[in-house]
Amino acid sequence: MADVEALGPQLPLALRFPPDQRFDAFVGMPGARAQLEAFAASPAGQALYVQGPPASGKTHLLLATCAAAEAQGHAVAYLSLARLRGRLAAAAEGLELMGLVALDDIDAIAGDAADELSLFDLHNRLRDAGRGLLYAAREAPEGLPPGLPDLRSRLAHCTRIALQPLDDAGRARLLRERAAARGLAFEDAALEWMLRRCSRDLRSLTALFERLDHASLVAQRRLTVPFLRQVLAAD
User: Fold this and answer.
1) What distance in Å separates the CA atoms of residue 172 and residue 49, rounded to the nearest whole number?
2) pLDDT above 90: percentage of residues in the chain
3) For a Cys staple, 179 with which of 127, 139, 186, 219, CB 3.0–4.6 Å?
4) Most confident by average pLDDT, 11-15, 24-28, 107-111, 174-178
5) Taking a C-beta distance cutoff of 8 angstroms, is the pair 185, 222 a contact?
6) In angstroms, rounded to a whole number, what is the distance separating the alpha carbons of residues 22 and 18?
7) More confident: 125 or 234
8) In this predicted structure, what is the pLDDT of residue 17?
9) How far is residue 179 from each of residues 72, 175, 217, measured CA to CA in Å?
10) Region class of 164: left (phi > 0), else alpha (psi between -120 and 50), else beta
11) CA 27, CA 20: separation in Å to the nearest integer?
12) Domains defined along the chain, listed by start
């Protein structure tokens, strides 16, 4: 995935917010999707906090929200705080001019006094300017490591959206839809074999799917059980 916060506004929407990270590609929790779609249409003055374990779709939903908001004419910015640890003050300059700011990986700066102070200042500037704020973290605000009390208080007052990991049916649907979107033939038996034999972590599954997609294109083969065995044996 591209480093979205480093890309300029002149780039096409699809390059800054990948097509497979849109609302229509999100599987599971339709209530969360509907809430964020409404937020993307009118983000002004709202602050939302998306909470969920790893691989539950937090980044997907933040990027989807940014893409939807920008498509409706809002100026947006996405920042992964995991990539900005120690540099948040500089990255946050001028963000109060955006209509919507999405801040991913809040956990990454928890406990860092300078970054927490920068985030507290940014939160206040955006709220004072009537901008939209969208946070994502693995933990609820009260579950973050001890840090700046005023920041935790601000985060605790955001509207919460709690995500859960996909079950096996959801994982299967996600992989089927990604394959169909690329015109890739993925036999049911191969999909079931993959879910039984490979890691069920969604990041691992999607990374494996990308490798299988590339291998299928090179070999001009369907995704069958023998082909999956061949690819995995080569690894």
Assistant:
1) 28
2) 43
3) 186
4) 107-111
5) yes
6) 7
7) 125
8) 67
9) 28, 6, 12
10) beta
11) 11
12) 4-162 (3.40.50.300), 168-234 (1.10.8.60)
Residue 74 C-beta-side C-alpha neighbours within 13 Å: 26
Q: What is the pLDDT of residues 206-224, one digit of tens each?
A: 788 888 888 888 888 888 8
| pLDDT greater than 90 at residue 187 | no
Cβ-based neighbours of 166, under 8 Å, separated by 6 or more: 27, 28, 56, 57, 174, 202
H or E stretch covering 133: strand 132-137
Please tell me the total number of residues recorded for the chain in this structure: 235
Taking the C-alpha atoms of residue 120 and residue 74, their distance in angstroms, rounded to an integer, is: 23
Nearest to 56 by CA among 137, 160, 165: 165
Q: CA-to-CA distance for 110 and 129, rounded, in angstroms?
A: 25
What secondary structure, in 3-state letters, does 206-229 show?
A: HHHHHHHHHHHHHHCCCECHHHHH
The shares of helix, strand and coil residues in the chain, as percent rounded to the nearest 5, are 55, 10, 30
pLDDT at 195: 84
Contact call for residues 165 and 202 (beta carbons, < 8 A): yes
Query: CA torsion 17→19→23→29, rounded to 10°?
Result: -100
Q: How confident is the model over 69-123, as pLDDT tens digits?
A: 999 999 999 999 999 988 999 999 999 999 999 999 999 998 889 999 999 999 9
Question: DSSP string of 10-36?
Answer: TS-HHHHS-GGGSGGG--S-HHHHHHH
Phi/psi-derived region of residue 18, left when phi > 0, alpha when psi is between -120 and 50, beta in every other case:
beta
